[in-house]
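User: I'm putting together notes for a lab meeting next week and I want to include a structural view of one of the chains we've been expressing. I don't have a solved structure, so I'd like a prediction I can at least talk through. The sequence is below, exactly as it appears in our construct file.
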Amino acid sequence: MINRLKNLSVEFKNILKESSCLADSLGFKVYLVGGVVRDLILEKKVFDLDIVVQGDAIVFAGKLSELLGEKFQRHHSFGTATVNFNAHKIDFATARTEIYSKQGVLPKVSPASITEDLFRRDFTINAMAISLNGDDYGKLIDLHDGFLDLKKKFIRVLHEKSFLDDPTRILRAIRFEQRFNFKFEDETYKLIKSALNSDALKFVSHHRLRDEIVLMLKESNPSKYIKRIHHLAGFCFINGQIKLEQKDLDVFFRIEHSLNHYHKRLKKHRILQAYLIYLAGILCKLPLDKVKKTTYDLGLKKGEAAIIYSIRKGLLSIKTLKNYKTPHIIYKTLKPYSLESILFFYAYYGKDLKRNIEFFLNELADIKLKIRGNDLKRLGFKPLKLYSEILKKLLYVKIDKRLKTKKEELSSAQRIFYGLSQQLKN
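Assistant: Thanks for the context. Below is the predicted structure for the 426-residue chain, given as structure tokens.
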């Protein structure tokens, strides 16, 4: 396994060597654990480190952060700490065992050995460790045949109550199954179905469900994850009224295609919160009041909830863009919406709205006037209350007539002002 560690970056290898020396000096046992070990065996790139300490993880992280010249964050209630090193994160946890007092709630934890710590984990492929101590540095600790399950491409839980103790493991199992193109081991599949039949996910807090769903929707090709959840569990655990049909599942594949199209062919506007587009697809068949309640229950940020709400609310009104519209009507219709909302509409309605939405994104979205209120003031326009109306109408004229220069805008502003002035006189 030392050879596996050689695949780490120079920075990470130096950190692990420092950790090894420090652990030996303190008399602690330290281990690289979990997903990091799995990814090293699969020869995937490692971005962050997870280290378990048989000893006090907070003390260990504090001393290591001094050696690295970095600050660290401590979390006394969990016995954990985090060191941020350049663009990377190193998480430290005291080896622990867990006791679940009630289905779906967070467990009570207490210090334990590495053996007990690995047994509490979700799947065998995540229950391996690599020793970082001097004498057996790089040695793989695999007590549950995780290495063999990686080779067989199996997702296997460690004990039969696993999905009842923590039902979010059902969603995690799906995430790993789809990410790695693995299969559920037979007994694990039976345990998943049994837990779902007992509505296990309904015992989990909405906030924990949100975290798992968001992680899944941030994976590559989220549509296949959504399809898998739909066929295994459905989405009633989020809201009992969510009933997706095949045509709804097709929308997720179109979202995927639309996002790829946006990144490859449309002019760039900003980084997307793409997971919100997929989440909107899951929630968009709910009535408006239920969308609002569900986003609140999930604990989404105000801006995130607003995007999903606007998508649901705009579904019907946006359909008017199906027919040919003048440029300023296209602008006026789409400008109030977030980019996430617009790309959702693009996917939802497909070719019916494609032309107008692409025209907006490529040609209209960033159009701004060159003149301001002070320019109107210098022209002697009165009263001031007309300015906002003049500028709004001028923007639409600029869009329709493709005005290029400030001079053209000023000339059009004068005509608009004259027309509004006549209306006031009448």
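A couple of points you could mention at the meeting. The chain has three domains: 2-152, 235-364, 373-425. The CA atoms of residues 267 and 363 lie 9 Å apart.

User: Perfect, that's what I needed.
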